[in-house]
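Bump. Still looking for GntR family transcriptional regulator structure tokens.
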Amino acid sequence: MGNKYDELIEEIQSRLDDERLKAGGKLPSIRRFAKEFNCSINTVMRAYSELEKAHLIYSVPKSGYFAVGTDMPKKQKPMIIDFVSAGPDKSKMPYRDYQHCMNQAIELYKEEMFQYSHPLGLPSLRHQLSAQLQDLQVFAPAERIAVVSGSQQALDLLVSLPFPNNKTEICTEQPTHFSFIDSITSRGLKPIGIEVNQKGIDLNYLEKIFRERNIKFFYTVSRFQNPTGCSYSNQEKKDMVELAQKYDVYIVEDDYMGDLDTRKKADPMFAYNPSGRVIYTKSFSKVLLPGLRLGLAVLPEALMKSFTQAKFAADVHTPVLTQGALEIYLSSGMFKAHIEKLRRQYKKKGTILQKAYLEHLPPNTSFTGGDSGFYSTVVLPGRMKAKNLVKHLQKKNVLVQDAAPMYLPEYLKENRIRLSVSQVEDRIIAVGVKKIGDGIRALAHSYF
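Sorry for the wait, here they are.
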């Protein structure tokens, strides 16, 4: 039924696009369409309902369904399939629960809101985070946990701070998210890259970099990497930690999506060296509300003083009200219930996406990503430019992102697009991927 549903949506959109269905034109009856597509009446009704929500069609009681035109009271709004937006699915966010926690926090922390808080966060929240992190195999005392205004703030501060190893260069995965690249280059530094892909990372080359360069720290997203969506095996993580220890290199592990990992035995790098060689960072933006700007960093003792000073200089402290609300949300058990639900939902999204890739992409393309998480990339065939495909798909109301800004100049790839399924409805994912596949085929003649 799912495939028939997608076919119906796509067929009606196609008829609207090429004006076989003109403004005000009547759509086939539900029974007629069900017979034409050899599907149930319920499937057609669901498709019509979805198109009506998108303001592409409208219903007239006892008359049927009609195409929306510019002369209609409702403004025509085409269905946009957005693979660019990477925030959490708005429909899955616990607004009401968190609002309740905010109200409680106002009462509980009304005195603290009239004075400066500790730069590293409310002591009670840090203790709660210490307990919460144990579920992710991160065992750290509250004293080593810093609450930050989003994990990007922690990364930005770590880039600027001197480290105990007195080294100055930063090694990062290629590709990686452009905000981290900007953090490095904005300070006049030149990052050292190492390629990661579906097969993992070249440990021999990583060792060569650690041995021959003056690496302060290696930045890695160990699970659901942005933009590839790939995750390292436990053995790879263990090997990287051992190399870092051998060559006196720190690892900054960005575990922004660790909560969504369905693999029960998948541990973060921090678990292999909790003494301080691995600096663990985590964000709540992708699993809660991005506007909260809350994250954390687990720091080695040797960095605590300088990080505290830098955090104070950056913003004095993270807002008390949002900290208090997070503490209540965590301690109540609401966060755990929310995450378990999200984990199932995003695993389903990832599975649908990978299946759609196999069914709809041309055989001369490849793709990355796992069965969960937000991100994946598609490698376009030959010399096809991602920017051209992006423009082509925009005209088809499908939004994808050119991955070129996520590469350093020496690693630049112009034939990759990044997709996020976080804000795409499950039933529309395959429709969007089919349009991507059709777009690749349509542009192929320009390059071969």
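The CA atoms of residues 139 and 274 lie 7 Å apart.

Edit: fixed formatting.
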